[in-house]
Specification:
The chain is mainly alpha-helical and 638 residues long. The chain has three domains: 2-176 and 340-485, no CATH class; 181-309, no CATH class; 490-632, no CATH class. It has helices at residues 2-15, 33-52, 60-71, 78-101, 107-124, 128-146, 153-171, 181-197, 203-224, 232-256, 263-276, 293-309, 325-338, 341-362, 370-379, 387-411, 419-435, 437-456, 461-482, 493-510, 519-540, 545-551, 555-575, 584-603, 619-632. α4 (78-101) runs antiparallel to α7 (153-171), α5 (107-124) runs antiparallel to α6 (128-146) and α8 (181-197) runs antiparallel to α11. The chain starts with a helix and ends in a 6-residue tail after the last helix. Pfam families: FUSC_2. Residues 359-479 form the Integral membrane bound transporter domain. It comes from Streptosporangium carneum. Belongs to the YccS/YhfK family. Keywords: Cell membrane, Membrane, Transmembrane, Transmembrane helix.
């Protein structure tokens, strides 16, 4: 079954424009069976318990609480998952309580929805946990105010929280036996991707490794930040990731010398990945001297990883991210919430659209108008990708899902048998989330239809009502939340590009200073900035062609900037293993040129011709900077 869906999704991706098949997030080629089973258990188990008690509708709220909490599970360290899922569950419970308390209060309900939209928008800017919590707060406020459930709001909120606790229990079921499983899996994935770099260092392979490395660092540090005292095993995982980064840079330095990586190192990296996965014992130390700076850099990096895997001492725990501390994190969150033009624009757009949807609901034009308001909340989410693409995908996915739901409602009689298709659609939700918003909507629409039918016994007519309300919600988003806002037509590719250039200049200025203790942090800031730039770019190209055509002109400049970063990292690797270092004057000239390019991009002017000092160790870096300037110039005129 998953293979069939995967094949269909691939066919659509080849035949359709980008905005129609925009991927929600980077995902593996196929879903794992446990997340699918976990989602099915989360949704169906409360319904089974209620069925055993003789009132299946009592399981609706626990099932909704479990589903919303389980949807917030995006993997990672157990601590990060608990925070993200717990925040989503608690926010959903609060949203339901508020919505249910103000249900049926006329225009006061509309004002409550607008207030919830503002709070949701501000919370969403605080990070991954805040994003899911903000969404669940708004979604459950809508559902609490729209669906009349039996029982007082307080009791129903407790039922919802029971479902939240059930989803958390399922997510943490493996923790007592394998407390470091997510961190270890992330490190293994990074080394598996690194192994493929030995066969070729194309742009896609490099981007895949950089993404895997960043995810592994985030996962390990998220877990280690809560550890009491030192944690030798997680420190070793960080050190292994540091060595993987050094191996990557050494491979690029081999390209500068026009050399192929030795077969021994390639085999050793494969054996390291297999040993980390428990498939074989650690490889034997290589102890081989290279005959050039690049081969020595590669041999040293691989040897260090082998020694760490064999139980060797961790010489240095160079952290690629700053430890902000509690006060620093609070200050960072406060800065995200209360500053930034994009935050203010998103808050205004969401409040306007939710107010309009609430006003239409009060006019009584739609039978179950909460679906319309719910569509607005789900589609108008900036960190989920293109609003235009999601609106179209939501409409098409809901159309397909309602057709499927209609068939199920006609074919399956009301009663225990309805739990079978509910379990199937719930299990398919994680797969839909991995692919794109439209496919997820195609699975979510029939699931929600069946859950609502347990309460209302509306039958096939529910599908028609759901489709009309969803299309109305998408229309509100496009007419009020997208078209009138020019900022929504433009992705901030230029500012992100300038930030990545500045990060590269900052790293280059200290890269050859061996006494500088923060070089690893500066290097990872460069690749983090490049990863953020790629994310913004990928979202932008899914916009309509009138927008995406302008954005795609940044692709050559992005490639040129990645070449500057890679040439710098490779030159540093060679300089640390016998190659002559560049002169400080030559380094300062390159740094000044990069800073000028960043400033000119921010000002919208063509970059000035770089004044670079002739210096043999920096020859490749100078060439890459000249290429960067040539690709960026011509895009802007003062």
């Amino acid at each position: 079954m998953p293979r069939l869906f995967r094949r269909a999704a691939g066919t659509l991706a080849d035949a359709a424009p980008g905005w129609l098949v925009e991927t929600v997030r980077v995902a593996p080629a196929a879903p794992q069976w446990w997340p699918m089973l976990r989602m099915a258990l989360a949704v169906v188990a409360p319904l089974l318990a209620a069925l055993a008690a003789g009132r299946i509708e009592l399981g609706l709220l626990p099932s909704m609480g479990a589903m919303g909490t389980a949807l917030a599970d995006r993997g990672g360290a157990y601590r990060a998952r608990i925070i993200r899922m717990g925040a989503a569950g608690l926010a959903g419970a609060l949203g339901y309580l508020v919505g249910a308390a103000f249900r049926g209060h006329g225009w006061m309900t509309v004002l409550v929805l607008v207030a919830a939209a503002v709070v949701s928008a501000l919370i969403s800017t605080t990070g991954a946990a805040g994003s899911t919590a903000g969404l669940q707060l708004l979604v459950m406020t809508v559902l609490g105010g729209g669906i009349p459930l039996p029982g007082p709001p307080g009791t129903n909120t407790v039922m919802f929280l029971i479902g939240v606790a059930w989803a958390l229990a399922l997510a943490l079921a493996d923790w007592p036996l394998h407390p470091r499983a997510p961190e270890e899996a992330a490190v293994i994935a990074a080394y598996r991707t690194l192994e493929r770099l030995f066969a070729g260092r194309g742009a896609d392979a490099m981007a895949a490794f950089d993404s895997a490395l960043r995810n592994a660092y985030d996962t390990v540090f998220s877990a280690r930040s809560a550890a009491a005292g030192t944690d030798p095993e997680r420190t070793r995982l960080v050190a292994l990731l540091n060595q993987a980064s050094l191996i990557r840079n050494a491979l690029i330095s081999l390209d500068l010398e026009d050399r192929a990586p030795p077969a021994e190192e390639a085999a050793a990296v494969g054996e390291i990945a297999a040993a980390l996965a428990g498939e074989r014992p650690p490889p034997a130390p290589l102890r081989r001297e290279g005959d050039s700076p690049a081969t020595r850099a590669l041999g040293s990096a691989v040897e260090g990883a082998v020694e760490l895997l064999s139980g060797g001492d961790v010489v240095a725990d160079q952290l690629p991210y700053e430890r902000l501390g509690r006060r620093g994190r609070i200050a960072e969150i406060w800065e995200r919430v209360w500053s930034g033009h994009l935050t203010r624009v998103y808050t205004a757009r969401l409040a306007l659209c939710m107010g309009a949807a609430g006003a239409v609901s009060e006019l009584g034009w739609f039978e179950r108008s909460y679906w319309m308001t719910l569509t607005v909340a789900l589609v108008l989410k900036p960190d989920f990708g293109s609003v235009f693409a999601r609106a179209v995908q939501r409409a098409l996915g809901t159309l397909a899902g309602t057709l499927i739901g209609t068939v199920v409602l006609v074919a399956v009689p009301y009663g225990p048998a309805i739990l079978v298709p509910i379990a199937v659609f719930a299990a398919l939700l994680p797969y839909g989330m991995q692919r794109n918003w439209g496919l997820m909507s195609a699975f979510q629409a029939p699931l929600v239809l069946l859950l609502v039918d347990l309460l209302t016994h509306g039958g096939p007519r529910l599908a028609e009502i759901r489709l009309v309300d969803t299309l109305a919600g998408c229309l509100i988003v496009l007419l009020l939340g997208y078209l009138p806002w020019p900022a929504s037509w433009e992705a901030p590719v230029g500012p992100r590009f300038a930030d990545a250039v500045s990060a590269t200049a900052n790293y280059l200025g200290h890269a050859f200073d061996r006494g500088h203790t923060g070089r690893a942090l500066l290097r990872h800031r460069v690749y983090d900035a490049l990863a953020d730039l790629r994310t913004v770019f990928q979202r932008a190209v899914t916009e309509p062609s009138v927008v995406s055509r302008r954005v795609t002109t940044w692709m050559p400049a992005m490639t040129a900037l990645e070449q500057v970063a890679d040439a710098t990292a490779a030159t540093v690797a060679r300089a640390e293993h016998g190659a002559p270092p560049p002169s400080p004057e030559a380094v300062r000239a390159v740094v000044a040129s990069l800073e000028d390019i960043a400033a000119d991009v921010r000002a919208g002017c063509p970059p000035r011709r770089p004044e670079l000092a002739e210096d043999e160790p920096l020859e490749r870096v100078n060439s890459a900077v000249r290429g960067l300037r040539d690709t960026v110039s011509g895009r802007h005129t003062c």
